[in-house]
């Protein structure tokens, strides 16, 4: 290599790059956990999840080469390790450090990938392949090899397919130019700045401000809804709009949660705002209490929210909102947290639209609305659903209409209610043949009426049969009773 005079192995380059990454994390991502695993024909967890990055660097110096590189074994090990430690709800980043040579397993790996695609295309879950992981994950492949290496060129498409199957994003990293300590360091610095960059912003509340960091850093929001693709990115300015009691806000669904960490402008150090909940003579508690005495708007806000039992509704940029609240992770300490809702002004139904909120002092005391706010439209789950999964369900609905038809005009209201219920369901399902069939049944029922039947019965049945046959397919326009001279109110 051009920048060293002694022979070095690929392992030395990998250790150098990972050391740069761990140093970056030690400065910017102190609250993150990391783990080290080696893989070959078998896998081994060298260092379990820890915040002690120095222990990982020490373990790196003692790693040894093994006989081959089995990526599938590595992915299986990652899945087992993360699921055992964190479960399926915590997002992770997986870094595969390799020399870019898959080896004799390249054909079997290609076959596994092709088999995975063929199985998933049929709508079947492929339990034999470790990807995608059951937890949110970004998968990165860092290649310690020259970009012109033919073995690397053969492996790059496979690495990219693994990232695509993972589904959470990620990237394949290759050194720029000739392989050297400098190029490897540049590659890992690029990885760090792209995927481990901390989020620094400003928390605003009126004229009060505080420089803060969010841990973990918020990811850009992207979600495909029914008729649109919603994208949003959190602003660097988090503006508190107002305060609301915990009882009113209840426990709303959130897209992500973040710890609010105040930044000391002088040293740019991150110190979490700690509130002491119980008195103790422990030295650790005394140290935390000393940190809490430092002038900080975050500590003021945190203590106020905890004492008053309130949360702060904040604007995160665009149509994106969230809430700040005090969260206790133990009996003695609590932290200031941010829960980011999904983008949109009315994503919390019982609060209404955030844009309609304002100071309670501006509303007369007699007109103060109470929470939760009732929705203007009737929810679908509040109505009786029509279920025609089996033939008996449809038959029961038709027979119910016929029972009311034979008791006309006394059951006129019930008859039209059930008829319109069936008509709306048929239009919703696109079951237009049912409308013609129901009209035929009503015509037949009209001919079978006994001589003692009320004259209005035949008129109503004929009217309904013709209404079902006409071209009016408006879901919201019901079939109304025919007004005749036999009506009681005429």
TrEMBL record:
Coiled-coil features, chain-numbered ranges: none
Keywords of the record: Nucleus
InterPro entries assigned to the protein according to its UniProt record, in alphabetical order: INTS14, IntS14_b-barrel, IntS14_C, VWF_A, vWFA_dom_sf
Domain named Integrator complex subunit 14 beta-barrel: residues: 196-344
Cited Pfam families: IntS14_b-barrel, IntS14_C, VWA_2
The Integrator complex subunit 14 C-terminal domain, residue ranges: 386-486
GO cellular component, as recorded: integrator complex
GO term, biological process aspect, one: snRNA 3'-end processing
Subcellular location: Nucleus
Domain VWFA span(s) in chain numbering: 32-100
Signal peptide: none
PANTHER family reported in the protein's UniProt record: INTEGRATOR COMPLEX SUBUNIT 14, PTHR13532
Family per similarity comment: Belongs to the Integrator subunit 14 family.
Name assigned to this protein: Integrator complex subunit 14
Organism annotation: Nephila pilipes (Giant wood spider)
């Amino acid at each position: 290599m051009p920048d060293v005079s002694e022979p070095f192995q690929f392992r030395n380059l990998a250790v150098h790059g990972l050391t740069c990454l761990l140093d970056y994390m030690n400065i910017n991502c102190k609250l993150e956990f990391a783990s080290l695993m080696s893989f070959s024909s078998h896998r081994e967890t060298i260092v379990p999840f820890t915040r002690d990055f120095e222990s990982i660097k020490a373990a790196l110096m003692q790693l040894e080469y093994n006989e081959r590189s089995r990526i599938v074994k590595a992915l299986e090990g990652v899945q087992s390790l993360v699921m055992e430690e964190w479960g399926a709800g915590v997002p992770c980043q997986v870094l595969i450090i390799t020399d870019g040579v898959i080896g004799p397993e390249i054909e079997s790996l290609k076959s596994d990938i092709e088999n995975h695609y063929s199985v998933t295309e049929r709508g079947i879950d492929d339990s034999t392949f470790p990807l995608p992981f059951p937890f949110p994950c970004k998968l990165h492949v860092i290649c310690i090899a020259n970009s012109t290496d033919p073995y690397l060129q053969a492996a790059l498409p496979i690495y990219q397919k693994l990232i695509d199957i993972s589904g959470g994003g990620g990237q394949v990293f290759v050194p720029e130019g000739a392989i050297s300590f400098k190029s490897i360091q540049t590659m890992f610095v690029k990885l760090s700045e792209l995927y481990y960059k901390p989020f620094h912003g400003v928390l605003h509340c009126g004229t009060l401000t505080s420089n803060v960091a969010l841990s973990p850093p918020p990811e850009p929001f992207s979600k495909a809804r029914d008729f649109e693709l919603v994208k949003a990115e959190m602003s660097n300015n988090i503006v508190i709009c107002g305060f609301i009691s915990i009882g009113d806000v209840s426990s709303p669904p959130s897209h992500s949660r973040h710890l609010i960490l105040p930044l000391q402008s002088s040293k740019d150090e991150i110190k979490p705002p700690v509130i002491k909940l119980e008195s103790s003579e422990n030295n650790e508690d005394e140290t935390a209490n000393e940190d809490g005495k430092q002038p900080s708007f975050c500590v003021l806000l945190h203590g106020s929210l905890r004492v008053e039992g309130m949360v702060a509704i904040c604007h995160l940029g665009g149509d994106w909102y969230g809430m700040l609240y005090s969260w206790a992770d133990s009996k003695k300490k609590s932290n200031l947290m941010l829960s980011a809702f999904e983008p949109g002004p009315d994503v919390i139904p019982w609060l209404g639209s955030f844009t309609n909120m304002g100071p309670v002092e501006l509303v007369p005391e007699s007109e103060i609305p109470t929470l939760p706010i009732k929705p203007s439209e009737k929810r679908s789950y509040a109505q009786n659903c029509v279920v025609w999964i089996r033939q008996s369900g449809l038959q029961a609905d038709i027979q119910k209409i016929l029972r009311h038809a034979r008791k006309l005009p006394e059951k006129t209201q019930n008859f039209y209610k059930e008829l319109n219920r069936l008509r709306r369901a048929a239009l919703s399902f696109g079951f237009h043949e049912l409308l013609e069939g129901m009209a035929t049944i009503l015509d037949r029922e009209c001919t079978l009426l006994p001589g003692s039947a009320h004259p209005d019965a035949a008129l109503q049945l004929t009217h309904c049969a013709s209404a079902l046959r006409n071209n009016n397919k408006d879901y919201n326009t019901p079939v109304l009773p025919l007004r005749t001279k036999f009506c009681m109110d005429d």
